[in-house]
Amino acid sequence: MSGDSPQITDExxxxxxxxxxxxxxxxxxxxxxxxxxxxxxxKQLAAGTDxxxxxxxxxxxxxxxxxxxxVMWRTSHDYETVTDKDGALLFLLWLVFVPVLWYxxxxxxxxxxxxxx
Length: 117
What we know:
Layout: H1 19-28, H2 32-48, H3 55-61, H4 67-83, H5 87-96, H6 98-116
């Protein structure tokens, strides 16, 4: 984990979600659920860490060619906070096999949410 990753400031900002339900919703919505998940996860990161970004702008940034790579890079490094994995590895997973990234991030968020409950 890099030294410049955000720190958790409010564990109650994180919400546990069922990975199984997420897979089903992603299939049923033809992967549109993933976009919703990305936005909600960024809202949780913005509220629960000392990271300084706008979740809506980050979500919109996914649709802007070239800039979307920067969004993915920055988000991957913010995900370090909840996964204890290196941001560069998370970015690579995002480029190569998104389901693993999704699993790692949601599992980390679930762990934080359950520990604060």
